[in-house]
Amino acid sequence: MAVFRDATEADLDALCAIEDIGWSRAQFKSELGNGLFVAGSVEGFAALRTVGDEAQLYMIGVASRKRRSGLGGIILKECFRRSKAFGCVKMTLEVSAANTAAKALYESGGFCVVGHRTKYYNDGADALLMDASI
Q: Hey, is 15 helix, strand or coil?
């Protein structure tokens, strides 16, 4: 079972080492204290913010050695738990349509596609807007 805690400045190097994330050290640092939390010894993380009764999931990242282990789903469940504790009733996110693994994870967690942004990302991929009830 993963142990979750809020990320600290001491976690920045480990967060930046998680492959294929695309966030800089400065971006991670700006999220400290704003809903960035880590799993275990930074085997994974989530960036989550709440605005009123809505949670916004910015990213889930899992170290390559832990992918396909179920950790992403465990982190997603923790996002729902934290959001509910803050009184949120809905969680939103956007994901690249090309990221089939992430899309499958979010759908398995109860998210549905509610919108679409054409050629949203730098690589030309479309963005899918997804929502889930909490």
A: helix
